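Extended Data, panel c. Modelled sequence:
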Amino acid sequence: MKEIEILNSGGIILYPTDTIWGLGCDATNEKAIEKILSLKGREQGKHLLILVSNIAMLGNYVETIPNKALELINSVKEPLTIIYPNAKNLPKILSSDDNTIGIRIPNHSYCQELIQCLGKPIISTSANKSGEPSPNGFKDISKEIKDGVDYIAEIEREKLSFKASSIYKVTLNEEVITIR
């Protein structure tokens, strides 16, 4: 896959996810993350989430997976992002001041294939400039964003797919806070 070569070399891709079209890169590559922030015109310290392929991979990037998080993963059928405590093995630029990280396990074959072939999590952030509305589909993505990436996926370009994920924050003491 050409996308994997690009991700491995620190490049940025534009790709469909289980929610919306997103900008992505290797989530362990700080320079690639900085490229995405620059392309979006987004200041550092704003949260970016990562996609992992499964619970086993999730365990590589958070110190503890709270039981309440596992319950949510197993019960919520719609796209689900969970904010976990104690991020690990990721560049500091990704975690918030309290060392939390937003992570989603996508139910999307293309995303799953990307993550599995890369063997690492990928960034997933909306394909728009900071402060602008998220695109409802590929046709709504600005020329500036399209021109600023190293690769654009060839699939699902006709699909209107805007559907934000539910977001929950799960604390070490098993408290679940609904964000969205």
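The chain has one domain: 2-178. This feature is highlighted in the accompanying rendering.
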